[in-house]
Amino acid sequence: MKQGEQILAQQRDAQRVQQMRDEMDRQIREQEKLLEEIAQREEQERLILEEEVKQAINTKMANIRQILSNIEDGRRKIVDWMVENDLTKNKKNLNALIFRVFPSKGKSVQMHLKSMSEECSQLDPLMKEIQTFIKNRSISASKRPPISSMKSPSSEERL
User: Is 90 within the bounds of a domain?
Assistant: First the structure.
């Protein structure tokens, strides 16, 4: 009779062990599912950040293009005025030349030159801002470990 009780006790123990294994496997599957969901969310966030970076860079590039366009417009106006009066051959000081040849446009020409200078001075901060923005994004992305490195071991690996 004792042998029968021992067999029953062993069977109950084996059932409990199997139930615990099954429960652990279920919990592991749930954790892996949660980790996968987190990985998907992180990937979506990464894609959103990439899009934000692209938009920010495109905005900065549009600003740079506008500045360059303004500079080019000012340059064209000055060259056009110089060509009108055949000043391309004259090698004198530009300001003196401008006021001597264009008494009525002298202030306007100087204003365009000053505007071009100001436009040029805006390029450096924009370029630095873009470089800093890109550098900060790449640093923050490289510091965060990918979610795939955080997966839990399977039940076979634990045993």
Answer: yes
